[in-house]
Amino acid sequence: MLFIGDDWAEDHHDVEIQDESGRRLVAARLPEGVEGIAKLHALVARHGAEDLDPVRVVVGIETDRGPWVQALIAAGYQVYGINPKQVARFKERYGTSGAKSDRGDAHALADMVRIDGAQLRPVAGDSEQAQAVRVVARAHQTLIWERTRTFQRLRSTLREYFPGALAAYAGLELTSTDALELLIKAPTADQAAKLTKQQITAVLARHRRHRREQRAAAIQAGLRERQLGVPTPVAAAYAAAVVAHAKVLIALNEQIAALEEQVSEHFLAHPDAEIYLSMPGIGEITGARVLAEFGDDPTRYTSAKARKNYAGTSPITRASGKTHTVQARFARNDRLADALHKQAFSALSSPGTRRYYDKQRARDAGYNPALRQLGNRLVGILHGCLKTRTLYDEATAWSHHATLPSTA
Questions:
Q1: Are strands 57-61 and 316-320 parallel, antiparallel or unpaired?
Q2: How high does pLDDT run on average in the chain?
Q3: Which one of 3.40.50.10680, 3.40.50.800, 1.50.10.10, 3.30.420.40 gives the CATH number of domain 2-123?
Q4: pLDDT (mean) for 262-275
C-alpha cells in the first residue's frame, strides 16, 4: 500500500508518499490543476507496483471537496478529509514547539492515514444530485447569516443617531425590502418626519402589504414623534452609512429569494426528497439542509447511533474516577445542528413528537435540552426510513413511546 499526505494551498500541493513501514518514498510540490494531478499519478505509478490496485492508495487531505478531491476519488484512491484540528493534535506527537511547515503537514497527514486510518472518516461517496443540493443549500444559508450580520450593523448605527426608525418600522420588520426603501428615501429624523402618508402608502402598495392605510398612518406617526437628535453633519454621515447597509440588505433579499428557488428545485429532484418531506417538521428548505449535510452515501452511517453522533444530537459521557457526567455535544456540524433544531421545534405539532417532548419536560429537562432529545429521536427515525426506503409513519415511529407511563 501507498500512503499520501497532501497539504493543499491555493496554487500548489505539498505531498509525501510513504510505504507500509512509514519510509518516505518521495516528497514533492505539485501545481494545482490537471498538470499537478497528472504528476501525482505518475509518482504513484513510479513508487508502486505495476499492478497496484488504486484502492491500495490512501490519501489524507484537509478538505473533502473541490476538483482535486474529486479527481482523487475518480482515480479510485481511498481519500480521507481530515479536520485541521486533528492534524494539529497529531503533530504534537512529534513535538510541542508549535513549528509548522507545508512539508511537515504533508508528513503528518501521511502518518495519520497510515497509523490511524481506521479511526478516520473517508470522504463520503455522495451522488452528484446530493452535492448539488449541498452547494445551493449552504450558499442560501450563508446569505441568510450574512443578512443577519448586516442587519445588526444597520440596527446598531440607527440606535446611535435615529432610534425612532427602529420603533416606527417595527411593524414591517426592518429587514423587509419596503422598510429598507423607506429608510433609503428618508435616512435622517428630519427627512423621515417630512414623509407623507401617500409616499409611505405607495411603497407599501408596491410590495403588496395588507392594511396599507393603517400601516402608513402608524409609520408616519412614529417617524414624527419627538426624539433626541445629533448635529446635522454627523446625522448626514450616519445616513450615508445606513443607506449603504440598506442597499446591501435589499440585494441580499433578492439573492436569497432567487437561491431559495434553486434549493427547492435541486432538493425535489433528489430521490430521497419524498422520505425527508414525510418527516414531521421538515419542509423543502429544512429538508434540503438536512440532506445536504448528511449526504446520501448509503455506506456512510453504519447505524442510527453513528448518524446521531455526526448530527451532534446524541450526548457525550465524561467519566473519570468518581465523576460521571452526561453533557451536550458541541463539537458538531453547526449547519446540520441548526436545521435539526428548527425541525424539532416545527415538529411539535405532531402528536407523537409532542408527547415525547412533554415527557422530557416532565423530567425537568429545559426547553433546549428537550428539543435536542427530540431532535436526536427524529434523526434515528430518519435513519430507519432511509435504510428501509419507507415514508415516516406516526404510529410506527412512536408506538413503543405511546405505551410508556407518564411521569408528569
A1: unpaired
A2: 90
A3: 3.30.420.40
A4: 96
Burial of 99 (0-12, 13-18, 19+ CB in 10 A): exposed
pLDDT of residue 91: 85
**Placement of cell 505531498 in the chain:** 15
| Assigned C-alpha cell, 295 | 449526504
Residues whose CB is less than 8 angstroms from the CB of residue 347 and which lie 6 or more positions away in sequence, other chains included: 279, 280, 281, 282, 353, 374, 378
Side chain identity, residue 78: Q
Query: Quick one: which of 339, 338, 373 has its CA closest to 358?
Result: 373
Cell of 116: 490511524
Query: pTM of this prediction?
Result: 0.83
- List the domain boundaries for the chain: 2-123, 132-265, 274-402
Q: What is the pLDDT of residues 26-66, one digit of tens each?
A: 999 999 999 999 999 999 988 876 667 888 899 999 988 88
Once rounded to an integer, what is the mean pLDDT over residues 219-238? 90
- Amino acid at site 85: K
